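thread: overnight batch results

M.L. [08:02]
morning all. the overnight job finished for the chain we discussed friday. pasting input first so we're all looking at the same thing
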Amino acid sequence: MPRIDFYVLPDHRENGRALLACRLADKAYQLGHTVYLFMPSEVQAAALDDLLWTFRQDSFVPHERFPLTGELASPVLIGTASPAEVNAQVLINCTETLPENFVHYERIVELVDSQTEVLAKSRERFRQYRDRGFTPETHKL
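M.L. [08:03]
and the structure it wrote out:
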């Protein structure tokens, strides 16, 4: 049964949730976990791909876009494909919807900021997880 964590930013900044996704992917990678960053669009996936190279000067997070072009996968994958298609331990959900077939992940990470629509959709996902028998944790940053 996966652990589900909602990380709540205190405000809304242009790249706030994307930067948080980078920090959490970096932390998971440092701990030896594989990560899938589930993105709502190819444009946002490309932007996050670029941001992972530059979000912190001293970090290196080996990552690539999914679907893969080669045989071996980097520890961190970014894509818009259904999480059911990706084999990783940690799913960072950067979309506004409940990820399909999320139960094969060890951990699900949801990113929230203070935008009214983002808050409403994240509350809905929180309820959906609870209705399926999970106990999500909330972390206010």
